[in-house]
Amino acid sequence: MALLEVDSINTFYGRVQALHGVSLSIEEGEIVTLIGSNGAGKTTTLRTISGLNPPAKGRVRFRGRDITGLAPNRVVGLGIGQVPEGRRVFHRMTVRDNLFLGAYVRNDRDDIRGDEEQMLTLFPRLKERRNQIGGTLSGGEQQMLAIGRALMSRPKLLLLDEPSLGLAPIMVDTIFQVIRDINQRGTTILLIEQNAAKALAVANRGYVLETGRVVKEGTARALLESPDVQRAYLGI
Amino acid sequence: MTAPETEQPTILALQGVTKRFGGLTAVGNASFEIKKGEIFALIGPNGAGKTTLFNTITGLYKPTAGQIIFQGRDVTGLKPYRIAHLGIARTFQQIRLFAYMSALDNVRIGEHSRMHAKLWDAVFKTGRARREEAKVTERAMELLEFVGIRQQAHNYARNLPYGHQRRLEIARALASDPRLLLLDEPAAGANPQEKRELMELVQKVRSQDITVLLIEHDMKVVMGISERIVVLDYGEKIAEGKPQEVRTNPRVIEAYLGKSA
Amino acid sequence: MKQPRILVGLALASIALAACGNSTSGGSANKGTIKIGVDLPESGAETSNGIPTLNGVKFAVQQKGSVDGFKLEYFNLDDAVNGVHDAVKGAQNVQQFVDDPKVLAVVGPFNSGVARAEIPKTNRAHLVQISPANTNQCLTKDIYIPTALSGKPDVDCKAAGLPFPKDLRPTGANNYFRVATTDDLQGPAMADFALTTLSITKVGVASDAEAYGKGIADTFSSRFTGKGGTVVKRQDFPNASQVHDFTSFLRAAQRAGAQGIYFGGTDSNNACVVRNQMKGIFADSAPFMGGDGIVTGQCLKDAAAQAPGMRGTVATVDASQRPDAKATIDAFKAAYPNASDYGAYTMPSYDCTQIIIAAIHRAIQANGGNMPTRQQVLDQMSKTDYTGALGHTSFDDKGDTTNKVVTVYEAKGSPVDWASVKAFDYTNGL
Amino acid sequence: MLVVLLAPKAASDLSLFVQILVIGIANGAIYALIALGYTMVYGIIELINFAHGDVFTLGAFLSLPLLGAFGLTEGKSSGVSVYLALILIAAIVMLLTGTINVVIERVAYRPLRNAPRLAPLITAVGMSFILEGIMYFWRGASPIHYPDLIPNPRIPLLAGATIGLKDIIVIVVAIVLVILLTVFINGSKLGKAMRATAQDREAAQLMGIDINRTIAATFFIGAVLAGAGGVIFGLYFNSVRFDLGFGVGLFAFTAAVFGGIGNIQGAALGGLAIGLVQAFSNAYYQSALTDVWIFAILILVLVFRPTGLLGMQVPER
Amino acid sequence: MSRQVSSSDSAMRWATGFFRDRNRTIYTILLVGALLFPSIADITTGGEGNHLVSTAADAGVFVLLAIGLNIVVGFAGLLDLGYAAFFAIGAYTYGLLASGLLSGSPLHQEFHFPFWIMLFVAMGVAAAFGAILGAPTLRLRGDYLAIVTLGFGEIVPRIFRFLGAGSPIGNWTGGVNGIAAIDPPTLPFFLTGPWVGAPIQVVKPFDFSDPIAYPMDFYLLILILVVLSIFAVNNLQNSRLGRAWMAVREDEVAAAASGVNTVAIKLLAFSIGASFSGFAGCYYGAKLSTVGSENFEFIVSVTILIMVVLGGMGNIPGVIVGALTISFVNFYVLTNLPDYASSIASTIGLDFLNKSSGDWIGLHDEVQRLNYLIFGLILVVVMLLRPQGLFPSRIREQELEKGTAEEAVFDLREGSPE
């Protein structure tokens, strides 16, 4: 049984239909990436999974349970963490408070403290800044904080929305390394990236979205070698 | 595509421009010159102060110290609209169109500063106002044509596809008839095809005798079109030069590009 | 287009509804209807002022029923907005009377400030207006504080910020009458009472800054200081109804040596909340004084435990003390049995209505039994020579009553109620 | 400037000066309690909750029948049992106003959370009318005497000035509530959730925070404080009126902005400042201009320091 | 020039036609209704429609006010919670310069300028105050601007109330008592000449000093003023200026970077918006012949704002309908409801309800006590049902669909790092 199953969802913004029957599935332990151009519906797919934009039609199943239409906070509680586009760290709260809030759905106080230490070890730059407020961090640091925060809920599945957007090349490398590390520690990852080459380099499988529809899917290798993908998304 | 003559006059000169927010130095002592007619890129890691520098040049922020000279005139601390009048136009990192106005109206806003109809004309819809409207509309359509989205003229900006929104933003900037165009990450979120088209458009703009200053993370774009590059890190300039020189500069590699670039 | 049609529908419905009026008839007659407009504050915090006063008019109209074959009706409008009297609403109300050709006279308003806004409108229409309760001197006289009060040169109304009577009467002729006497007597009456009966010489004075409240506070102060007393602290509260804490003022007055407080204003402007807040700052025996604006049941409630010891003046005779008026009052109380139906201005408004009906009667006679014009009614008003619940009333050339009595009331007894304790007759001057 | 204006007054009659100071602080404490509700609600959903002042008045109105039910009448009840009963009554009222405010949020604001910004503002005004209308219908438009239940022995301060027991109670209660609230917001999980929701609603949801419940909790806490304020107001001034919340609420809101809207200590400070300005202006200057001073100071503060006295000085993005 | 937006040409033409028609339909209905209203009022009330006409004229004042506030709130997106202040300034300008009041001021000179000139003077004075208030405050972020305007709205009536007799600088405003006996308008000779009089009788004598003809005259006057205003505002909206207002509303930073002097544009919106209320205030003072500070309190500002929002911000016909609806509720429904209630009660045999007994003060007064509640309920229910207003502009409609709350406006003075 797949960890996450998205079954032909239609999602609207007002009257505008953003997704037309998108289906995908993710197995435990995988890194799956969604690639596509801007406006193709990648972020909408993520928001539909996490409950921010409930679908008008179709189902979302997580570990066999139907989570369609659940409120986002409930979805988090079930084990889906999300790093939203644009990082969205709490600017007026300290790094530690940000991490603390990441564990909001958990009640095991001591473990939370332990996890917090772990995150600070995972991201040494955050450790130096643990009592600084989020707004004073640089873009890369904020991205790390956002990832660390999402991990604090101990998600089974982590949704990452454009983690490299607007980051310097050197920072992009670091972030992708982090993604690999997290996955190796046992977190399944759904990754949205406009940097298709890098995304496919870390992913096991991928889906290509165009105008709200899945137009292609396959292993990362297969996609990397597909001429269509190469022409449209890899710029070769 | 012709490279500019080496001895073009300076169009924009930054002299020790510094911007601090509280204790945080966003831009520290930035100094460089842009020659008339060139395509000039500003790169650097996140938080290096690139957008802050743009905001400072276009008057959204007042610099804490330093001077900004545009076409020989000190424009430091002028209001944004004054700077736009003087001939600096820009786009934004996160697209900032007037979402609920048509593409045409977006461009016509760009022409605002070049219009002369007074309150009286507006209230009574005088002949002068009508004539001016017609002229402005015609030119706005030409600009939409120039960036290649004429067919979108009557659509709300927010309903345009992403790539067209980027183009519309450029059309709006061009409407104020600038001498210098500032582009803030124009290729962000674009696919390779769009990036190629964008590079062509930038060249086309430059061929209209408009100098271009851009911020961009995409090295293919930066290296592909810019003639000179300045690298900022933590608010300080760490390198300046032709793409080739910058690409191989060890400090740039360490602070910004990393091994893979 | 759906919405516009609904709106048109609403508009039509509104017009249809407008056809139902709220005039109440009394008696039967067939020559037509004559209406008496009544403008009083009838709702909210003003209920205790307006309703007993309105009852006086109702009672008089119901008693008479008709005059010379014309059916008599009263047509009452409320000049309170959100529960507080409002000059603009008053002006709109009298405009409505002016617009209605059957209205030959207006009783009201209650508040002098409202009267100032209304008189120009009724004056242009030559419509008689008679108030049971207005006391501000500048409605009829040019002098705000006469020499006789203060010992200083006259202060005229303009200097006090109020228009001259002639400014309110664009036609140049008078159309305004009243049965209460004026504040240049009401304030001094309390000053005389404080100095002679209460034997105090230092007071703090405040007002709600309205024409009425400031008027009595000023005339009180003039008389009080003129006769050797001292006003140790003076303050006006132009938004008194929104003030919840008067203790700063009371504290300052007490520190300055005040033995009592005079507050010119109405209970709807929190006058009697001031009394309650004197507790703990002044001794309980320290008097709290004011004008007719505090001689109300609401005031007793607001002052609560502090109510005993309040004194207020009313600028008319206390009808209940006149044996001649007993029959009328008893009849009224039989028709209006609730305690809250009767107030200090019930009999004055009853007399006002009787005076108007008499004038209309004379006008009909003068017009050969036909419906008189407003001007004809007006012409008859100045010839008034009427004896009623308040005693004898006639009008001087300004429209003021010649019956110049001010009664002092005190809150006392158990349960606490207002009782008249002294009357000052100033018919022959101060 | 204030020092220049007040110093000679203090020198000429120190006793009066201290007395006025006490009045100002006590009034300020009440403003502070109400301002907290404005500041919290604005902080979390950027809504000027015009109905909040009326929730405060409702607190006072709701306590009136409870006083009767507990057999507390003016002049007859005294002793420790009065205080115990009052604490119980205050607790019931706080619970009631809190619940009512949650209902108001549910009915009038939550459905409009994604509507144009002005729509909830208008419903807030509408709710204000509704609450005032209910109180008007219930008790009429005239001032209502609130039983005077607490003895007010005066305790000497300096220079012959005194402070009443009531003043002390008001001030202490306000300080305690502000401290409790600050600790709660900064330390507790729900408090952190409130701050997170205030900063980025969507991101907060992604942390697993139920923003509807968090916003409701904010309304609840704000109204609990307002309800307490209402009871204290009644006991202190012994007079309440259905439209009291409008004027007092406006000043409390001013206090919240003055201190830096969204900031708890700022609201308390702002309340204090407004109470003092009001007391001194009423006592020493034209009371007619008191409100003008208050609003003029508000405008000046905003023009020169747009985020208020203690406003956030942190980059927003 | 209208902003036609649609994906294909034919759809665009259809949409343009339709939307144009909608506004045109509303305008036509309103104008016809306005012209017929006096006759209808007269017929339905049996010749006593004067009061209705007069009330309708008062509603016209609010239409003017709503049109003016719509410029500030609807076009430029600036929340103004103190708009009544400008209304007050307009009314006092006329009141002071066309009554005897100033003879009691330190000037010792009264003025009686003609109404027709004062209309424009009041407009100018209000506009100037709009600019004076706007200049230092328009740089403020959205809600802070709203609060400052609220403060200004509170200060103005209080200052008018303070500057009466006994103020340190003398009596300039009549204080708490306001101004009474303000001059009615008088017509210039050529309009009142013999040809409009009894001999010809084509039109009723148009004479403001005649108290009987008065409501009709004022009604016609406000109708003319409203029509002129609609004309002017429509042109403004479709001009370079209207476009700039919209741009500032959408994105202030982008507008500034595109060369729009945002502060000047906002100032202009404030000023022009204020000028309409000056206009309205002058008329209001003349019609009532009295002006008092208590008629320009916060509640008035809020009421006008409600009219704008309820009608549909940014859409002129919508705003007019909003103003008429709220005026109808305020001046008519709520005023007459107690009477209807008590007459209905007596018709259906429940007359005992009309008697007061104990706590029950009679149905009439009990219903009157419900006014606040009813008005509040109407506001809440209407906003819940139609958050975008009755006739929203198309832009607002779309915004609502997407569910965007307006973004906080960027602070141009002190920014923050990227």
Keywords:
heteropentamer; C: 430 residues; alpha/beta; Rossmann fold; 2 domains; 7-stranded mixed sheet; 37% helix; D: ABC transporter involved in vitamin B12 uptake, BtuC; two-stranded antiparallel ribbon; 4 strands; globular; disordered C terminus
Major sheet description of chain C: 7 strands, mixed
**Whole-number mean pLDDT of chain C:** 88
Total beta strand runs of chain E: 2
The number of helices of chain E is: 15
Tell me the fraction of residues in β-strands of chain C, as a range: 15-25%
Oligomer: heteropentamer
- Reading side by side through the largest sheet of chain E, how are the strands ordered? 1-2
Tell me the number of structural domains of chain C.
2
Structural class of chain C: alpha/beta
Low-confidence stretches of chain C: 1-29
Provide the succession of SSEs of chain E.
Answer: HHHEEHHHHHHHHHHHH
- According to CATH, the homologous superfamily of the largest domain in chain C is Response regulator
Instruction: Give the class of chain E from helix and strand content and strand pairing.
Output: mainly alpha
**Unreliable runs of chain E:** 1-7, 195-203, 399-418
Q: Could you explain how this protein is built, in words?
A:
- Chain B is α/β, with parallel strands linked by helices and 261 residues long.
- Chain B folds into two domains: 7-87 and 178-261, P-loop containing nucleotide triphosphate hydrolases (Rossmann fold); 95-177, P-loop containing nucleotide triphosphate hydrolases (Rossmann fold), CATH 3.40.50.300.
- Chain B has ten helices and ten strands.
- Chain B has helices at 50-57, 80-86, 103-110, 119-124, 127-147, 162-175, 192-207, 219-225, 243-248, 250-257, and strands at 10-21, 24-35, 39-43, 65-70, 73-74, 88-90, 180-184, 211-215, 228-233, 236-241.
- Chain B has a six-stranded mixed sheet with strand order 6-7-8-3-9-10, with helices on both faces. In chain B, strands 2-1-4-5 form a four-stranded antiparallel sheet, covered by helices on one side.
- In chain B, a hairpin with a 2-residue loop joins strand 4 (65-70) and strand 5 (73-74).
- Chain B is globular.
- Chain C has two domains: 13-181 and 321-399, Rossmann fold; 185-314 and 406-425, Response regulator (Rossmann fold, 3-Layer(aba) Sandwich).
- Chain C has 13 helices and 20 strands.
- Chain C has helices at residues 2-18, 47-64, 87-99, 112-124, 147-150, 183-198, 211-226, 247-255, 271-277, 297-303, 326-335, 346-366, 374-381; strands at residues 24-26, 33-40, 66-67, 70-78, 80-81, 84-85, 103-107, 128-131, 143-145, 155-156, 176-178, 202-207, 230-236, 260-264, 288-290, 310-314, 386-388, 391-393, 405-412, 417-425.
- The termini of chain C are far apart.
- Residues 1-29 of chain C have low confidence and may be disordered.
- Chain E has one domain (26-400).
- Chain E has helices spanning 9-44, 50-75, 84-97, 115-137, 142-162, 189-192, 214-237, 240-250, 252-257, 262-288, 298-311, 316-347, 363-369, 371-385, 394-402; strands at 98-99, 111-112.
- Chain E has a two-stranded antiparallel ribbon with strand order 1-2.
- The longest helix of chain E has 36 residues, at 9-44.
- Chains in contact: A-B, A-D, A-E, B-E, C-D, C-E, D-E.
- Chains C and D meet through helix 8, helix 9 and helix 10 of C and helix 2, strand 1, helix 10 and helix 11 of D.
